[in-house]
């Protein structure tokens, strides 16, 4: 039976402990995270801008990339501005409602990112394995519908998890040992026995994470089997080049997320530090990889710069 914690005060706000346990490096962390955040915003906004203004990029492949950049921009907005503010101020509180909203958007956008990455793999699968039918199967309209379904699926799972965690009251101590409202940290502050709820929400997250990752692996098995049958070396190289950046981001994204969500409780380690890679580093690397390793994006960027320099003259 669920047991109520005794002699506890029902909470109305939480204190995000975050990096306050490392007081000597908070100023350095603020500067480092601010620089990474600004570069992340610049990279994602550049990708969204290029896919919007350059008609040659109005294809499903780049529409998915633009959708991913928008989703990741929103994803970082839910976490990093609050984290940066907390690094500078003594008051690190967040209301219970604010915590719930932050968690809902963080989980929803994280799930959306996973689904969009899966759809990008499916797009590459159709382009390489069914090149003749690809223009019929993957139109811009279908791409838009798939992106909408990714947002719907991500936030459906998020709402279920957030509702399970916030269905009851929370009791003191009100210290969230994290720099944002991480679900496994917050659920342990519930007034009722939280072990079952924690197990359920963790299982949902891990199932979503592993499910989307396995779908991507399956698509790449088919892609590789098709690529190896291409007779010319140039054809193989072209096929691999269209997948290289996506596969790199997938490995980084799912690798860092798996470290946090699939880490055994008995393994120890600072959850705050372990969460930095997938909340700060991954969103920073994603636009960098997609832009630097993509000829079309680089050509589009040069084209835009060329137009601006011509107009200035």
From TrEMBL:
Main location: membrane
Name of the protein this chain belongs to: Olfactory receptor
Ranges where the G-protein coupled receptors family 1 profile domain occurs: 43-252
Its biological purpose: Putative odorant or sperm cell receptor.
A single GO molecular function term of this UniProt record: G protein-coupled receptor activity
Source organism of this protein record: Nyctereutes procyonoides (Raccoon dog)
InterPro entries registered for this protein in UniProt: GPCR_Rhodpsn, GPCR_Rhodpsn_7TM, Olfact_rcpt
Family: Belongs to the G-protein coupled receptor 1 family.
Membrane topology according to the record: Multi-pass membrane protein
């Amino acid at each position: 039976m669920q047991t109520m914690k005794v002699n506890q005060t029902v909470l109305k706000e939480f204190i995000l402990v975050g990096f306050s346990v490392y007081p000597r490096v908070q100023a350095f962390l603020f500067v480092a995270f601010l620089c990474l955040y600004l570069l992340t915003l610049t990279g994602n906004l550049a990708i969204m801008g290029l896919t919007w203004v350059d008609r040659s990029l109005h294809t499903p492949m780049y529409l998915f990339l633009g959708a991913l950049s928008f989703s990741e921009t929103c994803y970082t907005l839910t976490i990093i501005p609050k984290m940066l503010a907390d690094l500078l101020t003594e008051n690190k509180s967040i209301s219970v409602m604010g915590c719930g909203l932050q968690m809902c958007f963080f989980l929803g956008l994280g799930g959306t990112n996973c689904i969009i990455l899966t759809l990008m793999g499916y797009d590459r699968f159709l382009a390489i394995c069914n090149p003749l039918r690809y223009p019929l199967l993957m139109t811009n309209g279908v791409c838009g519908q798939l992106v909408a379904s990714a947002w719907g699926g991500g936030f459906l799972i998020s709402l279920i998890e957030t509702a399970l965690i916030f269905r009851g009251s929370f009791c003191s101590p009100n210290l969230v040992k994290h720099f944002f409202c991480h679900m496994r940290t917050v659920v342990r502050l519930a007034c009722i026995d939280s072990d079952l709820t924690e197990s359920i929400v963790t299982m949902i997250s891990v199932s979503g994470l592993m499910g989307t990752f396995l779908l991507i692996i399956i698509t790449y098995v088919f892609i590789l089997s098709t690529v190896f049958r291409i007779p010319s070396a140039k054809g193989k190289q072209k096929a691999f080049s269209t997948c290289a950046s996506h596969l790199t981001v997938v490995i980084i994204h799912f690798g860092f997320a798996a470290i946090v969500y699939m880490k055994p409780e008995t393994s120890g380690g600072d959850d705050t530090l372990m969460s930095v890679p997938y909340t700060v580093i991954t969103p920073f690397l994603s636009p960098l990889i997609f832009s630097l390793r993509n000829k079309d994006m680089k050509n589009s960027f040069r084209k835009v710069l060329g137009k601006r320099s011509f107009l200035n003259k």
